[in-house]
Design goal:
466 residues; Amidase signature (AS) enzymes; 14 helices; 11-stranded mixed sheet; alpha/beta; globular
């Protein structure tokens, strides 16, 4: 295990406390991050662009502010990375597309403004699947980040927030921002062995975040621990007049209840029918996670699903394809443009969905919400494996197959979801469990995740050589 003096290995909440207490300076932290990024980025390809010189200047300014008693908050001087859907005025904003390789943002996303106002230092923009439409994390023209858990075989990082997952797992940054429309925070968290928080829609502003499916798009943290995810989420959530979906939503205070434990909570396991096709190592880790939470005092029961998870996946695809085609149809219709063929096919599928079919899909969604709410009554959370498989080699990816079997129901039903590492397969690849709660109940979800991580150390494991 790394020593505590390896600053790039400290979890964000520890690193922030050390900076605030002046046990370490922002300059020391950023220098360590710069050294790690410089050494590892050529191997991993996590970033579209890095701002290392600017980060060093920002660290010097933060150091002076803190030493003079002018810290702007508990995260002043903390490094962070942003998925390249999050706009920063004047900075690259490719959305993962080579077509937009030279595009520069004309605005700054609300969430980026909040991070910067809190004194955080943006290290760079991370790779994403083109237009954020893909779960494996591959990108035909901009390059696929390398999963750091196997440097001998190029394995998928998970998508679409691929670069953010890799950057956090490889200890290049302590935390990063991703976005999640059908699993795009939780899938890279699962494949890369880190923690990923899919927030309820309207919790965090999407203003200045390039859209894929506005009905379902949600930004969220990718971190090394649930505690770090809760801290970042608490900072970012809240009303934004530039995003009407955030108006009137209840405020969250996850840190107030984070460490209360799970005694008295009732957690749902998946029915046996949903275990089919899940890798044995993942099922074993899933069952062990449930046993761990049971030992902590949670009651475990089996949920009777009104629909198999596959049905939620299909309906989610219909809505995603229709809205993605409305946003990027002209680009993907132009066969002369260098667009990832898997992404092109998915978006072109939206051209075949009529307005009537799209409207019926939205109506069907409301029916599914009511059905699931009835089945979920009496439970505080439902736990599933995050993925059916561990990270597969890039060369065997079938773009027609989606790794999001267990994640999409969270989006379509307006729930919140949390992916946390649960161990490793026989090949040494991370496994993960997903904790899903009712919409706007992130506090309970994070509480369950923290309880699990307080009893295990899987989230502290580091890929060899990083």
């Amino acid at each position: 295990m790394p020593t505590t003096r390896d600053l790039t290995h400290l979890p964000a909440h520890v690193l922030a406390a050390d900076i605030a207490a002046r046990r370490v300076s922002p300059v020391e932290v950023i220098d360590a991050v710069i050294a790690k990024v410089t050494a590892q980025e050529p191997r991993l390809n996590a970033f579209v662009a890095t701002y290392l010189d600017e980060a060093r200047l920002a660290a010097e300014a933060a150091d002076k502010a803190i030493r003079s008693g002018h810290a702007v908050g508990p995260f002043h001087g903390m490094p962070i990375a942003l998925k390249d859907l999050v706009e920063m005025e004047g900075r690259v904003a490719t959305g993962g597309s080579k077509v937009w390789a030279q595009r520069r943002a004309a605005r700054t996303a609300t969430l980026a403004r909040k991070l910067i106002a809190a004194g955080m230092i943006v290290i760079g923009k991370t790779h994403t699947v083109e237009f954020a439409f893909g779960g494996w994390g591959t990108n035909q023209h901009m390059g696929t980040p390398r999963n750091p858990w196997d440097m001998g075989t190029h394995r998928v990082p998970g998508g679409s927030s691929s670069g953010s997952g890799v950057a956090v797992a490889a200890r290049m940054v302590p935390w990063a921002i991703g976005t999640d429309t059908g699993g795009s925070v939780r899938l890279p968290a699962s494949f890369c062995g880190v923690t990923g928080l899919k927030t309820t829609i309207g919790r965090i502003s999407t203003y200045g975040v390039l859209p894929l499916t506005p009905t379902l798009d949600t930004p969220g943290p990718i971190t090394r621990s649930v505690e770090d995810a809760a801290l970042l989420y608490q900072l970012l959530q809240g009303e934004d007049p530039l995003d009407k979906l955030t108006i009137g939503q209840p405020s969250a205070a996850p840190m107030a209840s984070l460490k209360r434990g799970v005694r008295g909570l009732r957690l749902a396991r998946i029915p046996d029918s949903e275990r089919a096709g899940v890798a044995p190592d993942i099922l074993a880790a899933y069952d062990q996670a449930l046993e761990t939470l049971a030992r902590a005092g949670a009651e475990i029961g089996t949920i009777e699903l009104p629909k198999p998870f596959g049905d939620y996946t299909l309906l989610t695809s219909q809505i995603m394809q229709a809205e993605a085609y409305g946003l990027a149809g002209e680009l993907v219709e132009d066969k002369t443009l260098p667009i990832d063929e898997g992404v092109r096919a998915r978006i072109l599928g939206g051209a075949k969905i009529s307005a009537a079919e799209y409207f019926k899909a939205l109506q069907a969604r409301e029916v599914l919400k009511a059905e699931f709410a009835a089945a979920f009554a009496g439970f505080d959370a439902v736990l599933t494996p995050t993925t059916k498989m561990t990270a597969i080699p890039v060369e065997v990816v079938d773009q027609a197959v989606m790794p999001s079997h267990f994640t999409r129901f969270v989006n379509i039903l307006d729930l919140c979801g949390l992916a946390v590492p649960t161990g490793f397969s026989a090949e040494g690849l991370p496994t993960s469990v997903q904790i899903a709660c009712r919409g706007y109940d992130e506090d309970t979800m994070l509480r369950i995740g923290w309880a699990y991580q307080s009893m295990t150390d899987w989230h502290e494991r580091v890929p060899a050589g990083f």
